[in-house]
Amino acid sequence: MNAPRPFCFRLAPATLAPVAIAVPRLGDAQAEALAVLVPLLGCGEEAAALAFDGLADAADDDLAAPALALIADEERVHEQLLSALAAALPPTDRQPQLMRAARRFHIDLGRGSGAEHLARIAGIDAAVCTILSRMLRPDAAIGADPVTRALFGRIHRDEARHVRVSRTLARSLGSARANADVAAGAREALAGVLGLAGAAFDTLGVDPDALLRDIGRLPDGLFAA
Ligand SMILES: [Fe+2]
Ligand SMILES: [Fe+2]
User: Fold this and answer.
1) Domain range for residue 166?
2) Which of 36, 65, 185, 224 is packed most tightly, with the most Cβ within 10 A?
3) Centre of ligand 1 from the C-alpha of residue 40, in Å
């Protein structure tokens, strides 16, 4: 079987066992909307796997390196889950403008120092938790579908832990002010990318205006001591 096509960034060939997921029980419009969002999220997982591999290699702290390598492994699992989900959803035309913006966004996250990269990741993973928790609300389409609820629930739990690790490391490397500045910039940029997919969020029962407003600002105290 050919390796699945990457969403954005090619990872080393997976050593993970292939996963298959059941067909989600979603309406046609909702399945199509999710098929737009999954590549966007998958692009983030590929970027995150590469980022955490790089951060783990560069870490000179004996405790940080294994924690970062473990996160990279979890991001690969997320990528694999989303690839399996994409295969279970209706085929969709890839949205070139959306995917170009997502790719550019993730490349920009890695600019500057490792400390800045970690601060941006903490801000972005916290934003991903917000996105997923809205998608998982019981009155939203994903929250009402057992297949996708389990998949995104797992990613949500892992991402909440990634935020704790990356913000702790960012705090040890940079000032609260510097971390907040770079993370706020990344969140604003993320809101710009997500704005291109507002209709898909709307179809899945997530209010895009409220989502973009909340993603575009950094939660108070993310990097406070
Ligand atoms: Fe992830
Ligand atoms: Fe993550």
Assistant:
1) 28-215
2) 36
3) 12
